C-alpha cells in the first residue's frame, strides 16, 4: 500500500467527536435537571428517572462510536 494512511485520523475523529458530543450533551442535560429540580422539588423522582434515561442513551451512542472506531482500527474493513 502506498500513500498516506488516514485510518488512524478517521478513528481519532470518530471517537473524539463522539466523546465531545456526549460530554456536552450530558452536561447540558445535567444543568437543566438541576434547574428544574430547584424550581419544582416535588418532581425530583420523575425528573431523575428521565435524566438517567437520557444520559444512558447519550452515553450509549458514544460507546457504540468507540466500538466502531476500534473495530476499524483493528480489522480495517476498507483495506
From TrEMBL:
Residues 9-71 form the V-ATPase proteolipid subunit C-like domain. Keywords: ATP synthesis, Cell membrane, CF(0), Hydrogen ion transport, Hydrolase, Ion transport, Lipid-binding, Membrane, Transmembrane, Transmembrane helix, Transport. The chain crosses the membrane at residues 6-30, 51-73. NCBIfam families: ATP_synt_c (TIGR01260), PRK06876.1 (NF005363). It is found in: Cell membrane. It is a multi-pass membrane protein. One of its GO terms (molecular function) is lipid binding. InterPro entries: ATP_synth_csu_bac/chlpt, ATP_synth_F0_csu_DDCD_BS, ATP_synth_F0_csu_sf, ATPase_proteolipid_c-like_dom, F/V-ATP_Csub_sf. It holds the Pfam family ATP-synt_C. Gene3D superfamilies: F1F0 ATP synthase subunit C. GO terms for biological process: proton motive force-driven ATP synthesis. One of its GO terms (cellular component) is plasma membrane. It comes from Variovorax gossypii. This is ATP synthase F(0) sector subunit c. The keyword Cell membrane applies. Belongs to the ATPase C chain family.
Amino acid at each position: 500500500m502506498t500513500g498516506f494512511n488516514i485510518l488512524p485520523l478517521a478513528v481519532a475523529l470518530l471517537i473524539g467527536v463522539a466523546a465531545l458530543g456526549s460530554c456536552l450533551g450530558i452536561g447540558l442535560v445535567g444543568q437543566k435537571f438541576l434547574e428544574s429540580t430547584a424550581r419544582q422539588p416535588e418532581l425530583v423522582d420523575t425528573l431523575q428517572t428521565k435524566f438517567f434515561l437520557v444520559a444512558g442513551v447519550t452515553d450509549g451512542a458514544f460507546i457504540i462510536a468507540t466500538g466502531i472506531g476500534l473495530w476499524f482500527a483493528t480489522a480495517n474493513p476498507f483495506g
